Amino acid sequence: MPLYPVRALERAMKISEVITRAISGKINWIQAAEILGMSDRQLRRWRGNWAKYGYNGLFDRRTQRPSPKRVPLADVEKVLRLYREKYFDLNVKHFVEKLHAEEHISLSYRWIPGLDQYQDLIVIFDDATSEVYDVQLVDEESTVTVMAALKRVVETRGLFCSLYSDRGSHMAWTPKAGGPVDRQKPTQIARALDQLGIELILAYSPQARGRCERIFGTWQGRLPQEFRLRGITEVEAANEFLRKDWIPMHDASFSLEAEQTGTAFLPYTGTELEKIFSYENRCLQIPQQTFRFSLARCPVLVCEHLDGTISLHYGPHRLGHYDSQGQLLPIPHLKTGQAAAHRALRSSPINDPGAKSFRAAGLRVTQERKKDQKRKKGAA
Q: Which residues pair with 136 in a beta bridge?
């Protein structure tokens, strides 16, 4: 069989998968055409080629050329068969782990040549101009790593209007595979964006993420070579190169000038980014506070931060700061209401609004009682 570049192989696999789903009745042919981003007439031609020539009929002959990164067709078919028949309910990360551990198949992308481990590349860029705002190599794309990237963008650039992303499990919760997202159950990232007033737009098809796919395709053909030329073999050195050199190189070659002057970013003037970009809904023992004798029945917020530490909050008060194991840590900047050296102090009406209200109500009751007594004495 003739050899084709990786993109041609991926496109042929996708067309084959969609046609197979349509033939099996899982989707109709109109839906299949929409998924592939082509007309129903063009899809009928591809279906005819597939029926006549088999898998080889799904390749565009214009792209025929040997590829140094080609994967044997037998391995590709084996991976697809394993996913359809054995690992159909696994997510991508879990599926890759099974391929490596149990099937002894190592088909993945190494960004750093010579490094015997795989990394995920997280990129945040402008969809209109392709200007890159943040890029980082991480062990795995997850809630923590994506939150860290978004936090860096907000700190360095400011607040933006919307974030366009795929429907990964860390971005949105989808009850049924291929179905709509449940907006009533936001993920930690969706919750953080909502707190900042940033709209989360989710893509429902690969074509909707075309610009992102093209950027990754370009980087896969350039970035490993840049690492090799500079002798970069470690993730830390690679990330330093990405921040200092690669972003300016990319923007100079591939970014476009905006049609309008100015920026859509707004500076973030708040002080709660650490609190916003954290995990919520954890339970810990609250230490004794200086501003209130008891916090019984008071709703508190538990935040797990990106560095692994945990903090407790009640309104504007930080109640405590903990390490990843739940051990209490000293709070560097002590404010009203924060725990201090575990001292048990009684509530003060000066610091406690609830105590103020209770005291004021008690004074009004006492004054009314005295007035009633005076009226009774006058009547007697």
A: 122
What's the pLDDT band for 85 if we cut at 50, 70, 90?
confident
244, amino acid identity: K
Strand pairing category for 199-202 and 162-165: parallel
Between CA 306 and CA 15 the distance in angstroms is: 40
Q: Tell me, rounded to whole angstroms, the distance of Cα 23 from its chain centroid.
A: 35
Spell out the residues 6+ positions from residue 3 whose beta carbon is closer than 8 angstroms to its own: 64, 65, 66, 67, 70
The CATH 3.30.420.10 domain(s) of the chain lie at 120-254
CATH class of 120-254: alpha beta
* DSSP of 269-324: --S-HHHHSEEE----PPPP-SS-S--TT---EEEEETTS-EEEEETTEEEEEE-T
Q: Report CA 83 to chain centroid distance, whole Å.
A: 25
Closest CA to 130 of 22, 18, 256: 256
- Model pLDDT, residue 338: 40
